Amino acid sequence: MKIKKSSLQQSFSKLKNTKVLVIGDLILDEYLIGSVERISPEAPVPVVWVRDEKQTLGGSGNVVQNLTSIGVKGIVFGRIGDDKAGENLERILLSNSVDKEDLVLLKSKTIPTILKTRIIASHQQVCRVDREEIVPLTTAEENEILVQLKAKIKDASAVILSDYDKGYLTPSLIQSIIGVCNAEKKIVTVDPQVSHFFLYKNIHIMTPNHHEAGKALGRKLTTDAEIENACREIAKELTPDAMMITRGEKGMSIYERTTDRFYHIPTVAKEVFDVTGAGDTVITTYTAFVASGMSIGEAALVSNVSAGIVVGKLGAATVTKTEIEEALQNLGYLDEQT
């Protein structure tokens, strides 16, 4: 499978007029970066001399970063705490080309902003410290979100559900969101959680990895045949337009339910440095390019190439349009003919 260069350029030009609504669990990622020169005298652990630190968007926020990186505007729904981490998260969202009026944040007085601190030394993660309280939304909060969703949905070309199972996407809210999107004829793409796996009915596509899909079905998925059977089984239950299962070093497999067609796309990653956020890149690029007019197969190819780029970077990285085009060209996936 190849993508015509003219089609790619056409999609690129449409991205700047594309808006994607992102709903899910917002997380603030913090990185403490330094070096290790000795072991602590207090315990057999390394002493990390911190030389740099940064905060960035994690969870569904990384989806927003990925949208920004390819020139797509985001409408963001999520929950933060009434705290410093929440202030920082909101500030970073606004710096990622999200307009103030498109930032629909539920600010909790009792639940802190989810903060994940990664300590990095010599380009390796030494440990991670998580600060979070997983509390589901109340019915009143869900109703408030749905009112705002109905007001914002008309501005969106597509909707991404970025589910990290941190309490924002409750079972009832998931079903209500999909109902609103279907009524407005907006495509819905889902990066799922196993605990909610069979709630995502009547969506455009779901993008689990093979571990998640296998866990949901109660068996391991290794071979192409096992993946194909799993896609058909899940699609029969959920009736999506398509199913995508990412497979690590084996790339990804995509199933078009309406045509009963499969695409098995091999991985393009030259070197895996950090898989953090690769799933966010897959669903973001796929959704944006389908919304810009690409076919399911073409958008899947772009998302696979994009994931291969970000796993070669540190942390929850993003990909640019230039990197995508260069990778497609270098891998022979770009048809230069018009």
Structure explained in plain terms:
By secondary structure, this protein is of the alpha/beta class. Helices cover 36% and strands 28% of the residues. The strands form 3 sheets. It has a 9-stranded mixed sheet with strand order 6-5-2-9-10-11-12-13-14, sandwiched between helices. A hairpin with a 5-residue loop joins strand 12 (242-246) and strand 13 (252-256). Helix 2 (60-69) crosses helix 8 (278-291), helix 4 (139-152) runs parallel beside helix 5 (171-183) and helix 9 packs across helix 10.
Task: Name the descriptors.
globular, 10 helices, 338 residues, alpha/beta
Helix content: 25-40%
Task: Determine the mean pLDDT.
Answer: 92
State the major sheet.
9 strands, mixed
- The helix/strand order is EHEEEHEHEEEHEHEEHHEEEHHHE
Any idea what the radius of gyration is? 20 Å
Question: What's the tally of helices?
Answer: 10
* Shape designation: globular
Per DSSP, what share of the residues sits in E-state strands of 2 or more residues? 25-35%
Q: Separation of termini?
A: 15 Å
List the helices and strands and how they pair.
Blueprint: E1 3-4, H1 5-15, E2 19-24, E3 26-39, E4 46-59, H2 60-69, E5 73-81, H3 84-95, E6 103-108, E7 115-121, E8 124-131, H4 139-152, E9 158-162, H5 171-183, E10 187-191, E11 205-206, H6 210-217, H7 224-238, E12 242-246, E13 252-256, E14 261-265, H8 278-291, H9 296-310, H10 321-330, E15 334-335
Parallel strand pairs: 1-15, 2-5, 2-9, 3-7, 5-6, 9-10, 10-11, 11-12
Antiparallel strand pairs: 3-4, 7-8, 12-13, 13-14
Helix pairs in contact: 2-8, 4-5, 8-9, 9-10
